Amino acid sequence: MEILVTFGAKISECMIEPVARQLGYFFYYKSNVEKLRTQVQNLEDAKDRLQHSIDEATRNGDEIEAGVLNWMSRVDGILEQIHKFLGDHDDQANTRCGQFPDLSSRNRLSKKAKKLALEIGSKIQTAGGFHKVSYLPVLQSTFDVNGYVAFQSRMSTFSRIMEALRNPSFDMIGVYGMGGVGKTILCKEVAKKAKEQMLFSKAIMVTISQNPKLENIQQEIAERLGLRLKEKCIPVRADRLRHRLRQEKKILVILDDIWEKLELHDIGISFGDDSKGCKILLTSRSQDVLYNDMGAEKNFFVGLLPMREATNLFNTIVGHTIKNLSFQTLATEIIKECACLPIAIAIVANALRNKSYPVWNNALQELRMASPTNIKGMHEKVYSSIKLSYNCLRSEEARSLLLLCGLFHEDANIDGEHLLRLGMGWGLFQRIQKLEGARNKLLTLIEDLKSCCLLLDGDYNGCVKMHDIVRDVVISIASKDRHMYNLRSIAKMDECFNGRKLKDAIAVSLSELDQDCQLPERLEFPKVQLFCMRYKSLCIQNIFRHWMYPYFPYGQNLEIPHHFFEEMKELRVLELNSICLKPLASCFGVFQNLQTLCLWYCDMGDIAIIGELENLKILDLSGSSIEELPKQIGKLTRLQLLGLKHCSNLKPIQPSTISNLINLQELDMEESFRDWDVEGDGGERSNASLIELKSLHKLTTLHIQIPDASILPKEIFSEKLERYNIVIGDVRVRYVDFGISRKLNLKLNKSDVFNGNGLQMLLKKSEVLYLNGLEGLNNVVQELDVEGFPQLKHLHFQNNFGIQYIINSMEEIHTCCAFVSLELLQLQNLMHLEKIYHGKLAENSFGRLKDIKVGKCDKLKNLFSLSIAKGLLQLKKIEVTSCRMMEEIIIYERENGSQNIGDEAVQKIQFPQLCTLKLCFLPKLLDFYSQVETNCTSQGEGRQLIADSAKSLFNEKVVSPNLRNLTLKGIDSLNEIWHGQSEGIRGDEEATCMFSGLRGLALLQLPNLLHIWDENCQTDIAFLDLMGLSVVKCDRLKNLAPSWISFQNLIILHVSSCYGMVNLLTSSIAKKSLVQLRGMSISGCKNVTEIIKNEGSETGGEIVFNRLQVLECCHLPSLTSFYSGNFMMGFPKPKYVGISHCPEMSSFSRGVVKTPQLEKLTLIDEEWDDERICSLDDGMEWPEGGYKEQYFAELDFSEQEIDELMISDDEMYSKKSKIELIEGDINATIRQLWEKDQYGPALQQLFSQ
């Protein structure tokens, strides 16, 4: 009986349960399908939420996490599959067999629905696990060395500084010399070269100056490191900065222009005792400061130029004039008066360029008479040379502007818009009434001063800076000749008052006030016309660069006494920065001559009293805490500029206040007021209305945010607008190119553009255009601007699901001309876009394009035709991602009889400036450049290939000599990267191959790639410039390169999950190249038997990896040895060798292996994550001129850093152990471990399958 029961149970298990399960699929068919529909909706909702986060992050300049992008791509594929399934299921499931449903179809569909629902549930769960979708990229320091001259006399000093940086015995190095000798630019060149040579992964330069502010130094270093310092307490900020710096492996911190002892610990500059790869480079005018105060271990003197080099520098700048013999004697005397100082020579030579003999003679006399007065550290010849250049300026306006720049703090980035506000109020631009005219005049004067080397380019577009030597002289001239004073503190002001120096002052700047300073009750400046007072803030440096300082606290504790300004009745310009003005002093009413009032980041309440300043022309309250703009402001009928930028608390603007400002020319409300009342909606208005703008007939500049296009009045935007930044809709874009003056950001429907509000007119004039949505739009050019946007520089178009063409000229009689000025084109999430243009275009269309980025345009098959691509001579970057139907990037379309197919000139294409090419997740991509006939008569001939079959992505018809970075990812059809190009690499000869200049190559998820370079090339040896090579999941690759390839510049080599690979490189390649290799990582290649292939006929010789420091072999189940040949192997500098899950590895090499610096072998027990490997960074972007700190760049590790090397943030490597080398022999160590298995659980996991 028991046997029967058991037998019956087995029958039930084997027969009844499967039958019941199949019947369950039938009976729960509708339920399973409905659950699938619900899950699809949930998945689409999750996808939309994630897309919103991605869009917001992209607008803010963030980089999107690779895992998020991969998830979005996979979900798109799943949704496409499910929508097709749901669209077909009704017909299939309802098929009748007589009067009964088709059980087979229902079972199959129900089963698939349930399976898909479970898969969707997994994806939704994954989406919920994304705690963040993006990250803020760290801004890399760039060292602008324009104007640097490699003087022969300083080459030795330069080389010795570089050698000291390489020397682990020196942590702090100093460079000293007199002011103007060229210390700063020399150190910039040192930093540039050190980064190119991979000595440091990062280099940061901070100017300390004569009066250092610890908060600003901390802030600048933190920003360069991507660190946000939210703490206010200096010691706490120092601890935070110190912790961050100690995370850096190799960093160079340059502290420029140190005048006295600086406590680095108080700032937070400390690396720890074991951080030998981190260095500090100091510059000073005093050797004593460097040696005694700072303790620099090695100091280098930078002296005057020899007469020969000084003469060459002078002659180069003055040009052809020096060829006249009569000038040459004068030139010699002038150079002597400049004391052979580079800055003095440059300034004087620029002042004398193209000048006559009497001017040169007079210059010599002035140089001999000038005096440096009592400027600390100033060489008399430097003073005289700068004073001469000042006197030689062609206009009084230029001299006044230079003196105005001297009122800013040291090392300031002086914004042109800041100078415009001060200059207009001060009367600098005589007889110019319009702001735009004054702006043009200002830019002209700035260019004149820059050409004389009296001003320098600033760190940001639109900014200028002053060399500290020039600034010292300018401040001296201003105080002595013009009674203009730059005072650093209240104490300095009191000192001047006691000496009665300020009685006749016409301009005073207090630019570095402390929070706890005590302001006097009253200032007695009876003649002052310009007064600036700025709190010494740790955050604010420039109101016009607000995006850099988003967490600024208003006002702090610095308050203005009630009678502070009473004696300044002649005041024309008043600037207060970060001051508490609650309540606003009643003495403001005495400023009847005031022309410019700037109250930036001030804490304010009621500002009605400002309405009494009847002569006011410029009122800028940007960044202030005002909550209301009162109606009294409407009394300022002479006002030309009103600035309310970043006034985030501003809610009500009293009705008619704006419309009463009848002379207003510029209105800036960027990221400020949005609560516009709607005109004509009944009832009394409580807020400003957009209709008020129509009363401003002189308005030429408008920065404004409008929440919805539906509230736009008719003809609201005038043709007089020349500068604008208008945002319409619920969008926010942080745009930081301050050289652009006309920007539109639109999230609306197409119909909103054509309702007579003036938007269509602004579209034609815009330089930057963001289009978000615009449903109903079918053709950007023909529907928005038939003239083809001739002034547009940047076009961003995203999130439109109907548009087919950006340009459609098929119905046009004449050839269409479009986007002739466009430099950047970004198309994102245009799901039905079929072509960028359809029809004929003029040859100069897209002719200035430098950067194109296309993503998630699923119906787009190509970017450009050959006729347009031939004109893309300035194109520098192409990035195409997640476009499912993309078949080629460039297409050659031939119409009937129009071109000869054999014409070489027609077929060849050149991209002379292309530097970066990135093609990712393009499953149907066949060619980069295909040749296709467009006159095929049958559907089957729709894509007739005229050239070679599409097994190769590139061929010899594509020429791009400056290509530096190539990333290919997720291109399933790719068999070969380039065809017939290997012959173009010829030893030491000039390379003709398109790819001979590549620096970075990343090949990821290319399952059908057969080889990277031609196997059977006739070239004996080819030298590649490749610096970084990453190959992941290329399963059909057998090895990396044939024996004729030489990787003499390769720094990083990363290979992972290539299941068909049996070895990486031949021994001949390893022997003759790889001299620069620093890091090698091989993982997850299950068929690799050895890394370096034994070619069998090897006798004698050696393979030496001179610079290899990191070697890792993980999850290589077939690996028997690193190299099985007879060559001796040398690793002079390895500091880390990691091995994981290599059970067949019985030795490192058959021959002798020398590893003099390696003491331990690291064994890692890791969880293999194939998906994580595939979501690694898509590649390395290397600059055209040299190396870039990235990836394995920081490779000179200390012992402590080696311990932490393979521990990532997500603790991927959870366990590891270190094994002491047996008698220093890695070969013997691995052999003994394999034979005896004596190291416990960690070793068992290492050598088990």
UniProtKB/TrEMBL annotation:
Q: Which residues form the signal peptide?
A: none
Disease resistance R13L4/SHOC-2-like LRR domain: residues covered: 567-709
Annotated ranges, domain NB-ARC: 158-320
Coiled-coil ranges per the record? Answer: 33-60
Q: Which UniProt keywords apply?
A: ATP-binding, Coiled coil, Nucleotide-binding, Plant defense, Repeat
One Pfam family cited in the UniProt record for this chain = LRR_RPS2
Name the family the entry cites. Answer: Belongs to the disease resistance NB-LRR family.
Q: What is this protein called?
A: Disease resistance protein At4g27190 isoform X1
**Species annotation:** Ziziphus jujuba
